[in-house]
Amino acid sequence: MDNELVAYLRAFPPGTMYEGSSLGRILVEINSRGQSLGKNVTQKGVNFLQKNYPNNEIIISAQHRLKYFYNELGFNSRGNVYLEDDIDHIQMFLGPCEINQ
Fold first, then answer.
1. Which of 9, 39, 47, 99 is deepest in the core (most CB within 10 A)?
2. What would the pLDDT profile of 12-70 be if each residue is shown by its tens digit?
3. CA distances (Å), 8 to each of 54, 61, 71, 97, in order?
4. Is residue 1 part of a domain?
5. How far, in Å, CA of 18 to CA of 20, rounded?
6. Handedness of CA 28, 32, 36, 40 (dihedral sign)
7. CATH number for the domain including 87?
8. 32, 5 in Cβ contact below 8 A?
9. How many structural domains comprise the chain?
10. For the whole prediction, is pTM greater than 0.90?
11. Which domain holds residue 23?
């Protein structure tokens, strides 16, 4: 069980999915939920994108039911709710991060 995939996300550079950088397909295996893995993997993705693309916002297409989960991680919603894969979604973003070197 040590090699079992339990949390996952995709990180995209600016201009791939949106004008800014983005995260997608954020998921936690159902039997592994409730252990803060979703927050941890999302924060790792945010940190990766902020380090590599610090002057770009991070955009996600979030399931609308998870809006407050992403709000707690600093994301803000914009626009209207829309259907994606027959599930209500909303675009959310995290503003650019300046990293002092």
1. 9
2. 999 999 999 999 999 999 988 889 899 999 999 999 999 999 999 999 999 999 999 99
3. 22, 15, 19, 23
4. no
5. 5
6. negative
7. 3.40.630.30
8. no
9. 1
10. no
11. 7-94
